[in-house]
Amino acid sequence: MHYFWPAYLWGVIVLLLTGLPGNDFPTLPSFWDRVQPDKIVHMGIFGFLFVLLAAGSFYKGGQLAVSKKLLYIYAFSVIALGGIIELLQKWVFIGRSCDILDFLADTVGVILAFEFYKLVFEGRKK
Question: Does residue 78 lie in a domain region?
Answer without folding.
Answer: yes
